[in-house]
């Protein structure tokens, strides 16, 4: 979503990209009654991230205390640093190492 917006001369904030990765995507797919937020009764998949496990991610993480800046950095660093993901849980099942 961020790259598409940039292509059209617009920039998305960290909260906007989080929205499109969660509730926004669920709404577009007409699934927001089942997924997309942490409301009771909805399905949710989680990843546990340790940004300190990678030198570049750790440096970027330490550069700010601002939660939105950290969220934005993680959105772009994690795809390039999968070893920073310590645990993956989908449908209530630990998929780490699967």
Task: Write a short abstract of this structure.
With 98 residues, the chain is α+β, with helices and mostly antiparallel strands. The chain has helices spanning 2-7, 14-21, 23-28, 55-62, 67-77, and strands at 46-49, 85-90, 93-94.
Structure description:
The chain has 98 residues and is of the alpha+beta class. It has 5 helices and 3 strands, in the order αααβααββ. The chain has helices at residues 2-7, 14-21, 23-28, 55-62, 67-77, and strands at 46-49, 85-90, 93-94. It has a 3-stranded antiparallel beta sheet, with no helix packed on it. Strand 2 (85-90) and strand 3 form a beta hairpin. Helix 4 packs antiparallel against helix 5. The longest helix has 11 residues, at 67-77. It starts with a helix and ends with a strand.
Give the termini distance in whole angstroms. Answer: 28 Å
Poorly predicted parts: none
Radius of gyration based on Cα positions? 15 Å
**Secondary structure: helix percent:** 25-40%
Helix-strand pattern = HHHEHHEE
Mean pLDDT: 85
How many DSSP helices?
5
Largest sheet: 3 strands, antiparallel
Shape: globular
Please state roughly what percent of the residues sit in beta strands, choosing from under 5%, 5-15%, 15-25%, 25-35%, 35-45% or over 45%.
5-15%
SSE order and pairing:
Layout: H1 2-7, H2 14-21, H3 23-28, E1 46-49, H4 55-62, H5 67-77, E2 85-90, E3 93-94
Antiparallel strand pairs: 1-2, 2-3
Task: List its salient traits.
98 residues, alpha+beta, 5 helices, globular
